[in-house]
Amino acid sequence: MSSSSELPIQRNEGSSRRRFLQASSATLAGLAMMPRGLFGSASSSNEAETVIGELYGSLTEGQRNTICFAINDPVRVRVNPNWHVTKPLIGSDFYNDKQKAMIDEIVRKVTSEEGHKKLMQQLDEDDGGIGAYSLAIFGNPSRGESGKDPFECLITGRHLTLRADGNSIENMAFGGPIVYGHGEESSAQDNLFYHQTVQVNKVFGALDAKQAEKALLNQPPAETNVKVQGKGGSFPGLAVSEMTADQKDLVKETLQKLLSPYRDQDSSEVMAIIDAAGGLDLLRFAFYQQGGLGQDRIWDMWRIEGPSFVCHFRGAPHVHAYLHIAGPSHVG
Question: How far is Cα of residue 120 from the mean position of the Cα atoms in its chain?
């Protein structure tokens, strides 16, 4: 397998690139509209990992040398809101039509119906569609599906790090930190993920004065600082253990909203890892005055963190958001 390189996104607004993005997005859109099962068992499976295994099996030697890496390659767990894990773009002729359809199916299967719709809109508005994003496979998914080896499929690009590991990487939800966002800057309300800020601020709005004083801080940490700290960590903000029953119900509702874009098996793994680390009571909510938009006291910068869980949301000037959930063996 090849040695990976970290490739920053190159912004190019020239007419040739626009034509490429339009063409590649149209191709993928057409493939997405084809009947499920047209390309064999991959499309009829209920598991993204089955499709990943079939995609891996379809790769030529040249393709594998370009986009396949060892599971312990450090680039696998990189955290960045704008990057390409490999050079070939999904919409390019590096992939054949069947492989592009498999990639489209993988994205569908790792997201909920609502999440997929929102993701497709974000990818289209941020960089012309999924054709402008890139993919890598770590480990061997054909062995991973039988439980022998960990593996992961990673899709990256502007405002996206999307992962699928079939729970093969133990005690690490999604297989590593994920990133999402949206480049809309005309107003916070126009951002696709503003509803998450509204939901999290319901928690803040339910706090009494003393609780709000603990929860509202001045300056957030660096947005990409999302390493899990374990039980010995230092976490900012107000602990859920200090909240009332009604406030805790809002916390549960908030976590459900944050996880709703993703498939059930990943959401369930997140909650299992949180429970194993001590439960919701050990999470803390922090809201930051720096970076807030307007004087509405709806805080656009916020963070939820505990021994095994980090969600960092930067809402201004546009959304960069990070989720990292992992057990004690992945601390640091």
Answer: 13
